[in-house]
């Protein structure tokens, strides 16, 4: 069960979702890759509604810089 959970929230799972999103500019994409180093942020990114992902991602990435 734990390995299934960690696979669901893996970096590659996050990148797959990120690649499917429209309108992600290069700077945001690269910042998101750094964000995905944090397991809690990966879980949040995968779990939130798809219409909330872009604003959440922009907010988190802008607060990192």
Automatic annotation (TrEMBL):
The lineage of its organism: Eukaryota, Viridiplantae, Streptophyta, Embryophyta, Tracheophyta. PANTHER family: L10-INTERACTING MYB DOMAIN-CONTAINING PROTEIN-LIKE, PTHR47584. It comes from Vitis vinifera (Grape). This is Uncharacterized protein.
